[in-house]
UniProtKB/TrEMBL annotation:
Residues 42-425 form the Cation/H+ exchanger transmembrane domain. This is Cation/H+ exchanger. PANTHER family: CATION/H + ANTIPORTER (PTHR32468), CATION_H+ EXCHANGER DOMAIN-CONTAINING PROTEIN (PTHR32468:SF98). One of its GO terms (molecular function) is antiporter activity. The chain crosses the membrane at residues 25-44, 92-109, 121-143, 155-179, 191-213, 225-248, 284-301, 343-370, 377-396, 408-430. It comes from the Eukaryota. GO terms for cellular component: endomembrane system; membrane. It comes from Corchorus olitorius. Residues 483-622 form the Cation/H(+) antiporter central domain. InterPro entries: Cation/H_exchanger_TM, CHX17_2nd, CHX17_C, CPA2_transporter, Na+/solute_symporter_sf.
Length: 783
């Protein structure tokens, strides 16, 4: 073993050919440590995903596994990968990540929304913090006596750290759990998020107070020092809010779209320097540096400038540097220090006290606010979630020598246990969302009478989907008395990015999905809402706004659940590719293959018909879509081969015929073979369609040998702005051979051809009828 003097550590090695071990040098070793930490945390995230645990659980467990509790018991491993001389370097990198992460937390925390959360959330938050704090204070009386060395710590300091550690709720972790459980837009979820926001703000105030009181953990520190630290902290906060905040308002205005000013490196450097300078000032005062970064984040106005800052730094901070902090905490956590039956009994006592205080306090306050008992208990369990803030408190307590190694390990395991049990406990007692959608009825576009209400659920990813969607709905809307009710659902992907928490914070159950003030581009979400509202008034359509904030893997559950609950006849999904640009620069831009998976799962599980819109700018000639949609005359072609999907497409074409500004052409491809019962239904559907719309449509029959080539030729003719087709397989091809030729199986064979990247193709709407899905499921089950 090579012993190194920490004062002689060099940054880089000269390489193995110079007979030097890179692991004896600071930077190569840091790269290996970071790689190992990222691999371990990511692997554990995948392993714990079936248990529906938040990412923070995997990161804490990963840190403990790398530390002296498991792998660190091998002394050779520790000396090779985590030698003692590398600890300051690793902790410095982790501290930089923590500093900027807390800046992001302050940047995203909207104080105005906290003030508007209401008395109920405030009452629940106060009770949910006060009772566990009192329980923690009482528990500290016992722990100071039974844990060796804790009686040497100042009584007030010990009470503060233990009380704060038991009373904290992790706002970002709670948001992730609520999203996973589909509770974000429920009353329980909204109340829990509002209360957690109160709790988060109070936790930082208490943490600053605890650090001011702690000093170096000595029991004989002069109280006057704590007073000076507190007064200096108050002066710092006042200075930031009175002087720095107007300065940052000015910077944000200079970077606003109204001034046509593109943010440059000068303002980024100014802001990043401000983060580090603020951290230095609070560290100089005697409060932890992260407090300064958090306050500086609060001074920046929420808007375009804040959004660009988040996009610039969040991936590097959250993806690379922050996991190093969890690893650093794990290296300090030695579970073997919890030795003996008495020590493990203390761990159970601490966990029980933390759970009892948090759950009981929240439950009683919620019942006092007239929340039902089951929802009150669910709130208590949700507010018992711990996370990064908990680890920050514990690490600072250890640095200040308020917590020794045994107490630190006990409290880390307490935070891990309470967070781990939250998801299964809430699932056991509160299940408002039915994950398996089973519909007893087959809802289609066909209505018993023409005057019956037609309900459609239209999904959008963002502003780019709005113009074509409004034009499509306008084409379906009739001028008669029949009612069209449109549900617009904004699909918001919940990722591990910190800005996802902004979306969660702004979500509302009955309003438009959220007002994302960090949205860039030409339209922001409030403008999208205004566009739909204006169109609803002009088009005399009843429009309801919904949201789905979820991971892509479970997004289809939200869509299918709303379709079943609102009893819609058809779901309209945007294709995962959309045309961007004009002329030779035009290309199909991919939103991401994850969205393709969402469409595929909706097609398999939907309780009604589903239409996928391949958008190439349908009817889009003006930004004022709502006004232009009633003037332009659109040419729509309905391709009919046969089968339930094509009959549903024919039904949708019939709705468009009723609109005066839409000209519909029925193009029927004749076939010689086919299922006899289906052929009879096809003949009846076409005959009935021609009888109802005689004189209002154009009808053509084409005898073709290759349906796909014929459809492609029609698309390239540029006669139509929109082609409507059924998804069903071609009768001349087996399912296996068709799949071999298809790039996008969710569109069927002809839909796949028309969705290709060829030029001069129109927008395409591919329809799948509910009964067709049932038939496929039955055929598969019989094989």
């Amino acid at each position: 073993m090579v012993l190194l003097n920490s004062t002689s550590i060099k940054t880089n090695s000269d390489g193995v050919w110079q007979r030097e071990n890179p692991l004896n040098y600071a930077f190569p070793l840091l790269m290996i440590q970071a790689t190992l930490v990222l691999f371990t945390s990511r692997f554990l995230t995948i392993v714990l995903k079936p248990l529906r645990q938040p990412k923070v659980v995997a990161e804490i467990v990963g840190g403990i596994l790398l530390g002296p509790s498991v792998l660190g018991r091998n002394k050779e491993f520790m000396h090779l990968i985590f030698p003692s001389w590398s600890t300051p370097i690793l902790e410095s990198a982790a501290s930089i990540g923590l500093l900027f992460f807390l800046f992001l937390v302050g940047l995203e925390l909207d104080l105005s929304s906290i003030r508007q959360s209401g008395k109920k959330a405030f009452t629940i938050a106060i009770a949910g913090m006060s009772l566990p704090f009192v329980f923690g204070a009482l528990l500290s009386l016992l722990l100071r006596k039974v844990i060796n060395g804790e009686d040497k710590v100042g009584f007030g300091q010990y009470i503060m750290f233990l009380g704060v550690s038991l009373s904290i709720t992790a706002f970002p972790v709670l948001a992730r759990i609520l999203a996973e459980l589909k509770l974000l837009t429920t009353q329980v979820g909204q109340t829990a998020m509002a209360a957690a926001a109160f709790n988060d703000l109070a936790a930082w105030i208490l943490l600053a107070l605890a650090v001011a009181l702690a000093g170096n953990g000595g029991a004989h520190k002069s109280p006057l020092i704590s007073v000076w630290v507190l007064l200096s902290g108050i002066v710092f906060v006042a200075f930031m809010l009175i002087f720095v905040r107007p300065m940052m308002d000015w910077v944000a205005r200079q970077c606003s779209p109204e001034h046509n000013f593109v943010i440059d490196e000068a303002y980024i450097c100014l802001t990043l320097s401000g983060v580090m300078l603020s951290g230095f000032m609070t560290d100089l005062i005697g409060i932890h540096s992260i407090f300064g970064a958090f306050i500086f984040g609060l001074t920046i106005p929420k808007g375009e400038f804040a959004g660009r800052l988040i996009k610039r730094i969040e991936d590097f901070v959250s993806g690379l540097l922050l996991p190093l902090y969890f690893a650093s905490s794990g290296l300090k956590t030695d579970v073997t220090k919890i030795n003996g039956v008495e020590a493990w009994g203390l761990l159970v006592l601490v966990i029980s006290t933390a759970c009892a205080g948090k759950i009981l306090g929240t439950f009683v306050a919620a019942m006092f606010c007239m929340v039902p008992a089951r929802e009150s208990l669910a709130l208590g369990l949700l507010m018992n979630t711990k996370g990064l803030v908990e680890l920050i408190v514990l690490n600072i307590g250890r640095e200040k020598k308020v917590l020794n190694d045994e107490m630190f390990a006990i409290l880390v395991l307490m935070a891990l246990s309470t967070t781990f049990m939250t998801t299964p406990a809430v699932m056991a007692i509160y299940k408002p969302f039915r994950r398996n959608i089973t519909s007893q009825t087959q809802r289609r576009l066909e209505r018993p009478t023409p005057d019956d209400e037609l309900r459609i659920l239209a999904c959008i990813y963002g502003p780019a989907n709005v113009p074509s969607l409004i034009n499509l709905i306008e084409s379906i809307r009739t001028t008669k008395k029949s009612q069209l009710k449109l549900y617009v659902m904004h699909l918001v992907e919940l990722t591990d990015r910190s800005s996802s928490i902004v979306m969660v914070q702004q979500a509302r159950k009955n309003g438009f999905p959220f007002v994302n003030r960090f949205c860039g581009g030409k339209y922001s979400d409030d403008q999208i809402a205004a566009t739909f509202e204006a169109y609803g008034q002009l088009g005399r359509i009843c429009i309801r706004h919904l949201t789905a904030i979820s991971t892509l893997e479970t997004m289809h559950e939200d869509i299918c659940h709303v379709a079943e609950e609102r009893r819609v006849a058809m779901i309209i999904l945007p294709f995962h590719k959309q045309k961007r640009g004009v002329g030779q620069e035009a290309a199909m831009e991919n939103f991401g293959y994850g969205w393709r998976g969402v469409n595929q799962r909706v097609l398999r599980n939907a309780p009604c018909s589903v239409a996928v819109l391949v958008d190439r700018g349908y009817g889009r000639v003006s930004e004022q879509v709502a006004e232009s949609a009633t003037v332009l005359r659109k040419r729509v072609g309905v391709l009919f081969i046969g089968g339930p999907d094509d009959r549903e497409a024919l039904e949708l074409g019939g709705l468009m015929v009723e609109h005066q500004s839409v000209h519909v052409t029925l193009l029927r491809f004749l076939q010689n073979d086919g299922n006899q019962p289906e052929k009879e239904l096809d003949e009846f559907a076409v005959a009935d369609f021609l009888r109802r719309w005689e004189g209002s449509i154009k009808y053509e029959e084409k005898a073709v040998s290759n349906f796909a080539e014929a459809a492609l030729a029609i698309g390239q003719s540029r006669e139509y702005e929109l082609l409507i087709i059924g998804k069903g397989q071609l009768p001349s091809l087996s399912s296996e051979s068709a799949d071999n030729y298809m790039e996008h199986t969710e569109l069927g064979h002809i839909g796949d051809v028309l969705a290709s990247d060829r030029e001069m193709l129109p927008s395409t709407l591919v329809i799948q009828q509910k009964s067709a899905v049932d038939a496929e499921d039955v055929s598969v089950s019989n094989i």
